[in-house]
Amino acid sequence: MADREAEGIIGLWARQLRVHQWAKNLLLFVPIFASFKVFQLQTSVLLSLVLAFASFSLVSSAVYVYNDLVDLESDRAHTIKRNRPIASGLITVTNGVLVALVLVLSGLGIGFLAGVGFFSALVVYLGLTFVYSIWLKRIALVDCISLAGLYTLRVVAGGFATGIEVSFWLLAFSIFFFLSLAYVKRYAELEATQKAGATKAVGRGYSVTDMPLILVFGAGSAFLAVLIFALYLDSAAIREQYAVPQIAWLAIPFIMYLIGHMWFKAHRGEMNQDPVIFLFRDWPSLVTVALIGASLVFAHIGFGL
After folding, report:
1. What pLDDT shows up at residue 298?
2. What's the alpha-carbon Rg for the chain, to the nearest Å?
3. What is the residue-wise DSSP string for 137-177?
4. More confidently predicted of 87 and 124
5. Pick the CATH number of 1-166 from 1.10.357.140, 2.20.25.90, 3.90.1150.10, 3.30.70.100
């Protein structure tokens, strides 16, 4: 109780708005890195990306508030979610509704400044997240497919914000990679549910007996992503981006390790947060992502090889 009193109003709202979840919106920067246009970054493009990041962050926070309002009763019955500000009564329902409206309107206004294409993607994201919060997240498998779509939509929106066309290969890889992460998230939740002595996840369409099947689906999706990446390395498209395409093959074992590492963490009950947020906080994952990036940059530049 003392910790809550010491938290303060700013810390309370930061927790409610899930400010730490804004790290997911760094996916908007994927197209500019994947196309290596970051080496010729223009001020106008950087400004557009900053506006895109701000608008997505505000809109996503509004959705988190709305989601907590919709799930108020189920959150109060949850062992962990009952500590959320709205569920615990630290933030009133009225204040939650008002803040959500302000955030949505502000986010849409800023998003419009980033361009019509980006604004359209933002509206689609907002609509899909509301449908997900009300309905889709309670349907087994559909919820994971929806999450993968929401992650991938951030990449697409980043392409609109920067004027970079997102390739078929990046889209295909993103969908299956994020689908695997969505299954990691569900698997980790069921692992926690099992440890709590329950048999069914609250507000979800899964029970602990589904864990082996989710593991199969998740691992299969992950290695489909690896296969797509390998096929990309043997396509004509790679010659447009890489001076020495063969070096890019070094990224494959790192990607396989990253996937395996995350599933190990989930299986051992050590994945207690969103897997994308986990990527930004887990140092082995960060080192692995850096090695993947270094392999691709080396292949792109070639260094005269």
Report:
1. 93
2. 20
3. GGSTTHHHHHHHHHHHHHHHHHHHHHTPPPPHHHHHHHHHH
4. 124
5. 1.10.357.140
